[in-house]
Structures are given as structure tokens and as C-alpha cells.
Amino acid sequence: MEERRSRGPADGGENESRERESSSSSFSSSDDLEPEWFDSVQKNGELFYLELSEGEEEALLPVNSPEAPSVNHVRFQENEAEVMPASQRKEGKKVEPTLKKLSRILKKPQKHVGKKGPTSILKQQSSPKTGGTVQQRYKDVCIYVNPNRLSSSGEGEPAELLQTLVGIIHQPSWSSRQQGRQGGQNGNLKYTNEEKLVVHGLVPGSSAIKSTQIIIGDALIAVNDVDVSSENIERVLSCIPGPMQVKLTFETPMVEAEISMKQKEKQVQSNMNNLARLLLGEDNSDLQLAIQEMPHIAMYLNLKLDSDTSKEEQEILYQYPISEASRKLKSVRGIFLTLCDMLHNVTGGHVISSSLIVSGKLVHVAYWKESDKLLLIGLPAEQVPLFQLKNMISDVARTLKVMYSSLDSAFCQVENVPRLDHFFSLLFQRALQPARFNPTASPSTQHYDACSALLLDSLLGVRWLAVPEDIKMEIDTALSDLEAADFAELSEDYFNMRRLYMMLGSCFFYKGYLISSHLPKDDLVDIALYCRHYCLLPLAAEQRIGQLVIWREVFPQCHRQPFGASGAEGYREPEARYFLLIVGLKYFMLPVLLEAGGCTAKAIGNPGPDCIYVDQVKATLLQLEGLDVTIEEQLGGPSSPCLSCVDWFLPSSRDKLESFTNTKIATFPTSKSALFMDASSSLRTRRPSPSRNSGGSDNGSEGPGDGAGLSPHSTPVLERKYGRRESQGSGDSEGSGGSGSLFKITKKRHTLPNPFNLGSLKKNLSEKETEELYNIIKLTSGSENTLFHYLSLETVQGIYICPTHKEVAQLSGSIHPQLIKNFHRCCLSIRSVFQQTLYEKKMNYLDADTSSELKKTDSGLGPVKEHGVLFECCPGNWTDQKKSPPKMTYWVVGRLFLEPQPQEFYVCFHDSVTEVAVELAFKLSYGIAL
Amino acid sequence: MEGLRLCLVCLTAGSGVPVYFRGRGVGRQLPFSVIGSLNGVHMFGHSQDVLLSSTCTENVRVLWKTFHDSISLIVISSEEDASDLYLHRLMDNVFHAMVLVIGLDELVNIKNVERLKKDLRACYPMIDSLLLASERIGDLVQCVDCVMAYDTPVLQECLDAFSRAAASDFGCLVAQGKVVVATEKWWRLAAQEVMLLTWLVASLAPHSSRDYPVYLPHGSPTIPHRLLTFQLVPGVHVCMLCGPTPSLHKVETELVEVFWKPLLEPVKACLRVQRRSFPASIPLHQGVLGLLLIKRDQNRLLFTVQAQSVEKPPRDGVELSLPERRSILRSFYTLAVTQYFSPERSDERTLPLLEEFQAGYSHRASECYIASSSHKCYGLQMEQCQLFLLFQPMVPTFSLRRIANETLRTFKDAPF
């Protein structure tokens, strides 16, 4: 067993090479074949290895030294002794240890602490007064290097590493000349025996040129604090083990315009990636600073205290953050302890929440009591409404239990403290400033994320994206193959021993959307919660993942229950241990749940990730990589129910007439309302985006099965539209007609303002008349698409469906973002009403055994099944003083289906939709899921 | 705690001495240790500059509130429909009822707790009536429950004349705790004052006439006014606020008879509309079970859960009882005003004791509805007017809005 695990795994993840490798070098442990993540495996076997894609890594550079690296590390030569601390180091030191040290340093993630920043800046400011001498100074530049790329590009000359790897061109002969000149200027230089590595040029497209901080004429003096010269540079660089960031220290003779430098750095900093910084647990003090004003805390308290030891704060087992923000809340922990204890004794119920006013702000504190310990989370009401906070704490408790089996084992072990700090810093960042989380995303995506987070983060489920059958099949097959685990190495007879793990199931994410899941709902939700807390899904939404490998022991909820409590009679959950393996590549993520100890070998100790399994999962991902085009198409296309932008319904005085003409054109006798029509047709099929339709030639690229079942009577437009995977018969013609017309309308809106009509109408009708006419027609026609947004939550599968980011981004407008924000906030409230219904139903169900079933509570709202709110909005910049701004009204309606399984459906649509359409839309929502 | 559905404890804020304890439901008083700890945590928070406002458990809500740093109220409720909004308003009402009866000075500068306890006994009837699940909703809405009588103009004219004769601007005709008519000045008092005065009149033991000193909590919390009440017929009182003159005897003997005797029939008729709160002549959709109409600008509301003048017998026995209807309308009102409708007045609170959920909306919510298996509700908000309707479940959801708008039109110009 042990040998097998330590066997050198193949690098990369290329299927063929892996197999070749494994057959030849099965038992030879060779260090150079270790995967990149191997060194990151922690003592307890856990692994969180995140390698960003190259572009991202480069963008992330300034992160390492948040206070503008080059400024920080500027040191002026005031006396010669201080000039070259590097050169003062013993030159006679053996090279080998240095290199070893280097490779050690290189492997460590870099942590710059720019403590010297302020003083050096002061010195720098005083520098102009010192006279016209050219000051010598040093700057550190972090760049990203990737030796793997090097090897793939062919047999580069070994002596050219500086050029090929870093991108710096150094010509030895030039250098000597130039150095001579420089030496004349700066006689204080002590480089005599080694040639200085002066930058003579930069390779286009290289990391060096991308950093924009390396300037021709700079001299490279150190790599990761290891002195370099032309003598040893190649050796030093060859020690770089894998893709990583290295710090290059340059000596620069010129005094640059500091300001431009700073500006540049600010720019880079502003678009750097907060999310990745948080995830990597790097210094995020500026992010912390932003939420410092808001009181927030997470505490784990001990309710049972030994009276003997009167240590200060002994009841606090864990607390985060340790800052001013949490001080007040921490100081009143006595309140929580007393209330939790006393109210439980008096009322017999657990304490759920408290509301306090701290520094003039309402703060909610949620309780989670388990045995004699108490978990508390406090957050300001303005950011986190109470209802959401209640969901949040139960999610946190569940996630922690999945990760550590119990809250006690999570909080009471010292080595977990930094992990929990990280966990809660992510949690608070997510809760308090969702908008700041994703600055690289486009504004609309960012907005959508930020305002949907409020609601979606409290759902126990994952965002689902329906893909065409054949794609789904392909993915499912690939996942099943993986789960079967009968490849050469994983099969039991290959090594003639029991396999290490059994794959319980896997699921497949693309850009944070669940495409396919082979997991039971509870396991899926557990994994989704883990991914949500570690922000893995938004991470994959941008292409950030070069490679992601996560491995940890997990304690899934449904497997954690005591024997006999779950499952059918006669079946027992095996006494097993469970491991979660998540492998991410580009936009894809593939979490796999592994079981050890059931029918497989028992896990001993804290096993780390097994290379074979990682590679298998990676291979599956690579196998599915080609699907990204197709899935992307699904993402980009209009959602199943086509959406409309609210701004189209608000006649600003300019386009009023235009929309009038359009609505006039768009009268269709069959379609009562587009909401219904659209739902009916699209719930079963997905269409490519309208913009693609105009091309008409893209059918060929869409994989097998194209154009299989064209409906014979559809119009050419529809043929293109439904050509892909249309399988309905003639029954759908009306629906298609409806959406087809829709498509025309929207297109016309954008492209065909009818100048003739516009002019004549303007002549003939006064403005008021026009408006009246417009209103009449608008009210009667009703053929416009009036659906603005929707969300469907399926509790059986643990998934939810809502419009994709791309769709939302397409519906740009000034009011629409507000509507989306409103929708989510309103849904939160509607959902809280539904939760109450579900809770009461559960209670009734429990009570049914003991008391009469007809016992009804004579209070409260009762079992609410449907709840709707009507909102009014006006265009933001209404300048016409004479008239009141036009009003647009829209509904946000939620409906709860209790049978057969709880399911929630929320829609946002225009006021004019008829009741029949709404009713049908709800009915059809049954078909939306799968 | 068994059997006790709602209880209210009043303590002195500084020393934590219990002043009184009132409760709803049957049950004994909470043990002193519990009250002590509840007060203790609140005081501890206060010392740490943290104001503990509320706590809820699976079945109980506890709220704390301190007034003028001298009186603390703690309310503990195990009722499901007791929202934070209601309990906050309840505590507010209770404190201001105390002010109304004994004046602010005595409550702020407590010299002798025993004396205060004795004085506050006078408030008990009123506090109990506030705690009691009453047929009125003014305590929650902070407006005055009104009744739309048959002969409102006549009664109004008579009341105005009566008040003028008594040299008072503040006159009001109350029928079983609901205002029938009142003078213009009366309506200009703070909404809470008008509500509490009505509540006070209803809670006092029946007397044919009464001269009662009241401190208006917002208008004159330290200087008492005289509240004169005269019973016209059992259940109907005419009240007036006045200064040192005229004397009770003078008004009773000289004015009441003269002005009100001729109007005995219309006054008696006020009691007949009591159940529905408005005359049967006003048409209402068949499906409407209950109605709550609030005219915010006038501090008035119309509330009924027996909206049909003649109610058909329930068909399948799943009819909602009257307390259920009241509870549903109260809950629905609470839901709408805490989650959707923009707050009625912003000057009310200085500290954000309640979560202002609706502040997060970017657009104004104007209407909302719920549908459940046993009932449906519809609420809408106009500029100064809010209407909440309770429907039978068989009324189709899509027609709720139309009915609500029609109802609103019906009552638009109705005098109440």
C-alpha cells in the first residue's frame, strides 16, 4: 500500500504519457516527477493547491507586496556599507548550499513584508536635495516564470535561461562596455570579479516585459534574494522547480519618474484579484480594513466553565476577527451565554438570534448551540438581514461539520485556528462586501453577483445549467467511467490488492454552473457548501484556474448519521472514511467523493491525495475539455425562458414612438402572453442566441445530432433557431410562433426604428395623444416578452436555475440592474415566508403522531403557497417638469410547491401579464429542471 | 412560562427593582430569578455600550426597551404572531399609557419606588387592555380605530356644537373603543395620543361621567389636562379635553342633555355598526372576509373581520374563526409594512431598533398579496392610504387586485 502511494506519479495529466510512465516506472520513486502540488500537502493529508492560469498569475503580482513593491524596497546608498548588503555576503560560500537554499526559497510562496516602506520613502523624498548625482537604487520585481513552458517549447540552449525563462536579454560583451561606463559614473560599485547582468533587451511577450517594471539598463543582482551574476545565473534559474513567481532584484541607475511608477502600480493593484488573494490566504489587510468599520464577529464559546480556573476569557474557544470591529461584541459575550443558558431552561427552546445596537447600528447575532458549546455569528442588519443570517449560521455549521466532523473538532484544535481564520475571513468578506469580491468581472456580472449573492448564498443548492442531451450524455459517460474506476491501475487485479478508495460519485462544474451530478442530494449540497465557502465556483467563472487540486477528509452529513437512522432497513452505511477530491482545470471543476474502508482498503492515518486518483480525475477533465465551446454556447444563448429588459417598457420620450411602432407590428393572435409562450417552448429546448441566428452557418460546429428533427412547418427563422435539437412534434408550433415573433420584436427594437412612422406620427399626433395610443395598444397587445427574471429552486436535487450571467449582461439598461437587485431582495423576504410554511408543516407532521392532526394554530399567516409583491419604478433621469414620470410596474411572485417535493419558483414579470399566463408559467416550471 | 402567552415586566432602569408585572393568558408570574437575569443582561450590555434589543428562541421572543433611562420594560411573548414590530409598539404604547395616566415627571424622577408602584396601579386596566388580544388593531397600526356610523354628518355637527359650548377644541364620540366622530383639533393630536385616549376611555370602568387628569405623552407630558367623559348610552361616550374650566358638573347638567338627547337614535345606531365598522349600505365583494383601511394622514383606520353584513354559513367547515382572521390580518399587515412598504413616518424612531428591510429596495413596493390554502390577502399602499383585505380562499388570485382597487374606490370618499 505504502509503496504504491509513494510511487512516482506521472506529471502533467496526459493520459497516454501517464500510462506509459506508470507501466515503466511503477516503483521507482523519482523526485523530479512529483506533481507540482506535492509539496503543498499538509501534514494531515489535506491539500489546497491552486495554481492560477498564467495571465492571472501575472496580474496578481503586486499582491505579494501590497504597498507598491518597487517603492518599498528602494534603498538609497547613503553609505557604501549599506549599499550592497548582498555583495558583503561571503563570496566564498559554496555554491551548492546556496542553490539548495534557493530552491527551498523558491518553493515557498513569497511573503514580502514591506516594513521598510515608509522610511525609504522619506529618504527618497530627501534625495533631490542631495545634489545632481545619479542615485543608485534597487528595486524588486516579481515576475511569473514557468519552466514547463520552456521545456515544451523545445530544446532551448541551457545558457539562455535568462532569456527564455525570464525574458531578459543580456549580451555579455555589451555588458562589459556599458559597465565600464557605469563604473565611471558610480565608482562605488564593488562588482569586480563578476560581470553584472545588465538588461540589454526584453523578449517580447515574456514575463519580464509584461511586468513593465524592468527597464533596459537595469542590472539583475539577485533572484529571490540569492545573489546572481553572469557566472551563476543559469544555475540559479535552472533550480526553479515549477511555475511560480520569483522576485528579481535590480539595480537601476536612473532616477525614474516616481509618480508614473506609482500610478502604474495603483492601476495594477486596482484590477488585481481580491478573490484569489483571499483564497490564497495572502495578506489582505486592505480588504480587512474596508470592513473594519462594520461590527462583525464569529465566536465559539464554552457554556460549561470550570469554576476552579478563573482565567480571563477562558470561555472563548475561538474568535474571529481579533480587531476593533469585534471588540464590543466580544465584550458582551456574557449576554449571549446567559441568554442561551437561561432561556433554554425557561422556555425549553433553543435560542436562535439576538438583535443589538452597537455604535448606532443594528446588529443581529445568530446562535448555534451544540452540546455545551455555542457558535455565534454577528453581522450588521443593513448588510445581512436576520433571515439570511439564520441560514448563514446553519450553513456554516454544516460546512464545518462536513470539513471537521463536528464543531468541537473544528474549533478545539489549535492547528485549525489559521484555517478557521481563513474560513471566516472569506465568510465575512462575502457577506459584507460582495461587490468588491470580483473586480475583474464586468460591471454587470459584478452587479448581478453582488445582488444575487444575498439570496443565492442562502439556498441549499447549486446553480444548474441545462445542456443538450448528447453533451450531457457525453459528460455523464465520462463521469461514470471515472466512477467505475476500473482503469488499469485502479482495478484491483492490477496490483492484486484492494483499492484505496471507492468513488461514491462526482459532479461536474463549468464556470460555476453544475452540468452534471452523480451525487445524492445531501452530498452534493455538502460539496456545494464547501465550494461556496471557499469561493471556488466564482473562481472558475473567470479563467483563473491553471490547476486546482483539493484533497481533504470530509464527513458528509448523510454518512455521518448514526447507523440505522438513515437508509432502508437492512442496509447500513459502512464504517468508512470519506475524502473529497476536487480537481479544477480552466473553467472546469470536478469534485469527487471517495470512500475508504467500506469495500475498499481502510484508510490509515491521514492519507494525502493519491496521485493516481488525481490524475484520473484530471484525465477526465482533459477528456471533457473539448466541450467548453458547446457549453459556452449554452451559457451565451438566451435562457430557457427568454428575458426582457425592463428599460424597454419604460417609454422615455425619445423611443416612445419607436416602441409604439414595434408593438403595433407585433400583434399575434395566438400568443396571449409571451411569458407563457416562451416558457412553454423553451422549457423543453434551448435556443442559441439571437445574434447567432443571423449567421445561420453555425450548425455545423455544434456536434453530432444537429438538425435531427426539424419541425416541418416552421419558418426559416425558426428552422435556424430550432435546428439544433428540436425534437417536439407539431404540438409546439404555437409556442414556436410566439417566441419567433418575440425574437423579431426584440430584434426590431434594436435595429429597425421606422423613420417613416416616427416622422408621420410626430406630425399628426400631439404628444399626449401618442401616449394614450401607446398605452392602449400596449395594454391590449400583450405579445411582448414580459418576463424579466426568474429563479427556480429544486430541493430534491439540490439545484437551482436562474438566468446566466451572460444573459443578464445582454440586458443592459439603467433600470434593469435595479430590478435585479430588487428581485433578489424581495425573493429573500418571500422565501422567509415560505420557510415558515415549511417549518410549520414539519412541526405539524411531527405533532401528528401525538395530537390530533386538525390542531391548527390560530395565529400567523398560515400555510402560504404564493406570495407576490408589486413594484413601481420610474426612469431615473426624468427631466420633463410638466408631466409626472411614466410609471412601470412589475410583479415579483414566488410560489411554493409542497407536492410532490418542496420546490420554489420565483418570477419577475411585467404588470400586464394575464393571469392565465402566470398560472401556466408556474405549471410549466415543473418541466424546467431537467 | 406554561400557559403564559405574553407577559410584561416593568422595572426601574437604574436599580432593577420590579415595578409591576402584567400578563396575558393563564399562568403564574415568572420567577424573580429569571426576571433578574433578563434585566441583568440588558443592564450589562448597557454598561458595555451595547444595547440589547431583542432575542428570539424557537418559541419565545424577548424584547427589552428602556425609556428615559429610568423605566425598563421587558416583554416576553410565546405567541407565534407576535412580531418584533408589534412587541416594540406594545412596549411603546405601555410606556406612553403610563405617561398618560401619571405623567412623565414621576416616571423620570423616581424618588420612591413604592409610591410609584402604587400610582401605577391606575394604569393596570389600560395596560391590560393593551396586552389583551382585542378586536381593535390601533395598537399595532398606531392609528385610531374608527366606526363609520349611519348619520355621521349629524353627529359631527352636534359634537362640534357641544365642544364649542363647553369651550373646548377637543371633543370626540367613542363607541366601544372606536371613534365615531371627533373635532378637527382632536385629529390633530399625535396619532398615538388619540389612540391611547380612546383606549383609555374604553378601559375605564363604566361611569356615567368622569373627570380624569391626563398627560398627553407627546403634547404635554408634564402638565395634566382634564379628560371629561359622559356616557350617552351604555358603550357610547362623549369625551372632551379641557383646561381648568368648565366643571364636570356644569357640562353634565347644562350641556350633555341639551345637545345629545335629540340624537339618541343615531347614537344608538353607532353600536349597531360596531361589528362591521361601517354601514351595510356600503357594498363589498362577496369574498372579502376582513378589511383594514388606514388613512395615514388622518390617523384613522377602519378595521373589521366580519366584512359581510350577512355571512353565509360555512360550506365545508374550514371557515376561519374571528380570532384567526384578526391574527392573519395583523400578521399580513406586519409583513407588508416591515418587508415591503416604505415606512409611514420616519421621525418616529431615532434608533434603528427594527431591521429596515425595505430600505434595501431600489424601487417602491406598492402592492402585495399572499395566497394560502385557507385564505388570501391583498395589500396596497397609495400616497396616504393603505388597504389590506382578507379573502376567502376560493376568490381567484388574479381578481384580488381588481377587488382591492374597487374597495379602495368605494371607501375613497367615505366619511370616517
Automatic annotation (TrEMBL), chain A:
Protein's name in the database: Protein inturned
Region named Disordered: 1-38, 107-133, 679-743
PANTHER family recorded: PROTEIN INTURNED (PTHR21082)
Biased composition (Basic and acidic residues): 718-727
Location of this chain's protein in the cell: Cytoplasm
Sequence ranges assigned to domain CCZ1/INTU/HSP4 first Longin in this UniProt record: 294-404
Domain CCZ1/INTU/HPS4 third Longin as annotated: residue spans: 784-924
TrEMBL record, chain B:
Subcellular locations according to the entry: Cytoplasm, Cytoskeleton
Gene Ontology cellular component annotations, sorted alphabetically: cytoskeleton
Gene that this sequence comes from: FUZ
Domain FUZ/MON1/HPS1 second Longin: 170-252
UniProt keyword annotations, A-Z: Cytoplasm, Cytoskeleton
Domain FUZ/MON1/HPS1 third Longin: 287-412
Residue ranges occupied by any FUZ/MON1/HPS1 first Longin domain in the UniProt entry: 7-130
Originating organism: Geotrypetes seraphini
Keyword Cytoplasm: yes
Chloroplast recorded as keyword: no
Family: Belongs to the fuzzy family.
CDD domains the UniProt entry points to: Fuzzy
Upper taxonomic lineage: Eukaryota, Metazoa, Chordata, Craniata, Vertebrata
Example GO BP: vesicle-mediated transport
Protein name: Protein fuzzy homolog
Classification via PANTHER family: INTRACELLULAR TRAFFIC PROTEIN-RELATED, PROTEIN FUZZY HOMOLOG
Entry superkingdom: Eukaryota
A UniProt-annotated Pfam family: Fuz_longin_3
